[in-house]
Amino acid sequence: MNEVALKPTSSPLQGALEVPGDKSISHRAVMLGSLAKGKTSITNFLTGEDCSRTIDAFRQFGISIEQDGTTVTIESNGPEDFQEPSEPIYFGNSGTTARLMLGVLAGLPFFTAVYGDSSLVMRPMDRVTGPLKKMGAQLDGRSGGIYLPMAIRGGALKGINYTMPVKSAQVKSAVLLGGLFADGTTRVIEESATRNHSENMLRAFGADITETNGEIRITNKNALTGMNVHVPGDISSAAFFMTAAAIVPDSELTLKNVGLNHSRSGIIDVLKQMGASISISNVQTIGGERQGDVSVVYQKLTGTIIDGDIIPRLIDELPIIALAATQAEGTTVIRDARELRVKETDRIKATTDGLANLGANIEPTEDGMVITGGASLTGGKAEAYNDHRIAMMLAIASLVTNDDVTIDDISSINISYPGFFQDLQTVTNSA
Ligand code: S3P
Fold first, then answer.
1. Residue list, ligand 1 pocket, CB within 6 Å
2. How far is CA 422 from the centre of its chain?
3. Count of CB atoms within 10 A of residue 392's CB?
4. Are the CB atoms for 198 and 190 separated by under 8 Å?
5. pTM of the shown model
6. How far apart are CA 114 and CA 154, in angstroms?
7. Catalytic residue at 307?
8. Crossing angle of helices 235-247/388-397, nearest 10°?
9. pLDDT confidence of residue 275
10. Across residues 357-372, what is the average pLDDT?
11. How far apart are CA 42 and CA 303, in angstroms?
12. What positions does the domain Enolpyruvate transferase occupy (predicted)?
């Protein structure tokens, strides 16, 4: 346990900050770099624990992966040379490693056993094993095949047409990765757009992939070729600081080189809709991924409604958006976000319990929450439920409370943002 008591500090956030590399893109860069023939160099790689799980997984196939801080170098001859792992593969807390790797393992012609930590073994995997079984892979796991630990015998896949029953980029990506190994065409049809980093990067590595009107098609025609990948800053990490600057009076903060892919940038739209003053500059597109600097100047917020197609574009930001809503005049309603119930923890419960303990007027609903804002929070004790995004949201809350915020355990923050507290100190002390 790593409990902290954070003193209330209403010091404004000032200056500029560069948050670590994007978690989703870092995972995918290791996966595609390992599946590609030749050398792949990744810069600004996220050194958090989740992405290390993906590196370790590919090392178990015999791939040479060197890491020097945020630079990762992969040398591979492609999947034909992968060796059957002699030990089970550990995915830790990482849902992205687990779900995307199941797509890869389904395509590899050997046996693998996989497992995860106490949170990951409670997260549903049947959403990916369902379509992968239709493609011809053999997968089985706990509780009739729903949960890890799981055993996979892959190979001899056939393309399928798959209409997504859940709005999940992890599911889409698992099917597309299976499609890289499958005979024939694999089609994935999605009703609402989810993050498209897999599609962007598969295209950049040379895969035969096309997309029209929400239908993505992939074949096994082209082998992937190694390349250089530069990972943009993670908008999901920047979100904590954008929100902090939007709710602490007198703040004026710039987050530099943040990923601005449209399928991820819903938080900017919502904060603007709530009245935040946000401007974007220095925009460029590298490897199909838009990035730029995001500047936030404090301005009073008002409540809003968040539902429908924007939800997948900000799914990981809903806990911190809920905190913003506690500081906004009026009521904020979040709907259509049932997926929050199956994240690292039940994030509807964790967010509403946590903020209620700090004095917020917040109620859970089946698929979201209702927040009545406009008052400062008292402070108090709250649980992070071993979830990195809940722990960081509670830490940011201490910038707007009257008393201490005590968080039971902050060690989960290493999953996605190892330098979070140093960065928080830098921007709150530079005033
Ligand atoms: C991710 C997709 C999202 C997100 C997760 C990362 C990805 O999950 O919550 O943190 O990298 O594809 P779902 O696909 O389950 O919505």
1. 24, 96, 168-170, 173, 195, 315-316, 339
2. 21
3. 27
4. no
5. 0.98
6. 13
7. no
8. 20
9. 98
10. 98
11. 40
12. 10-424
Kindly state the helix (H) or strand (E) to which residue 99 belongs, with its residue range: helix 95-107
DSSP string, 281-335: EEEEEETTEEEEEEEEE----B--EE-GGGGGGSGGGHHHHHHHHHTSBEEEEE-
Atom of ligand 1 nearest to the CA of 169: 14
| 3-state SS assignment for residue 73 | strand
The single residue listed with the structure tokens 């890869």 is: 104
Residue nearest to atom 5 of ligand 1 (CA): 96
Could you report the per-residue pLDDT of 104-139, keeping only the tens digit for each?
999 999 999 999 999 999 999 999 999 999 999 999
Whole-number Å distance between alpha carbons of 391 and 375: 22
- Residue list for the binding site: 23-24, 28, 95, 123, 168, 170, 316, 343, 347, 389
> Who contacts 182 (Cβ-Cβ below 8 Å, separation ≥6)?
107, 135, 136, 157, 158, 159, 160, 219, 220
Residues in the chain: 431
Q: How far apart are the first and last CA of the chain?
A: 32
Q: Are 44 and 230 in contact (CB under 8 A)?
A: yes
Residue 159 above 80 pLDDT? yes
User: 50, 316, 346, 423: which is the annotated catalytic residue?
Assistant: 316
Distance 125 CA to ligand 1 centre (A): 13
Q: What is the DSSP letter of 29?
A: H
Q: What are the tens digits of pLDDT across the range 200-223?
A: 999 999 999 999 999 999 999 999
134: its two tokens = 């239709």
Is residue 430 predicted with pLDDT exceeding 90?
no
| φ and ψ at residue 189, rounded to 5 degrees | -115, 120
- Give the distance (Å) from ligand 1 centre to CA of residue 380: 31
Tally of CB atoms within 10 A around 16:
13
Is 239:260 a contact under the CB 8 Å cutoff? Answer: no
> What is the Å distance from ligand 1's center to 194 Cα?
9
Ligand 1 geometric centre to CA of 330 (Å): 30
Residue whose Cα lies nearest atom 9 of ligand 1: it is: 316
Site of tokens 């870092």: 26
Identify which of 94, 126, 197, 315 to mutate to test ligand 1's pocket (most ligand atoms within 8 A of the CB): 315
Identify the H or E element spanning 370.
Answer: strand 368-373
H or E, element range at 26: helix 23-35
- What are the structural domains, with CATH classification, of the chain? 4-21+232-427 (3.65.10.10), 23-230 (3.65.10.10)
Cβ(188)–Cβ(164) under 8 Å?
yes
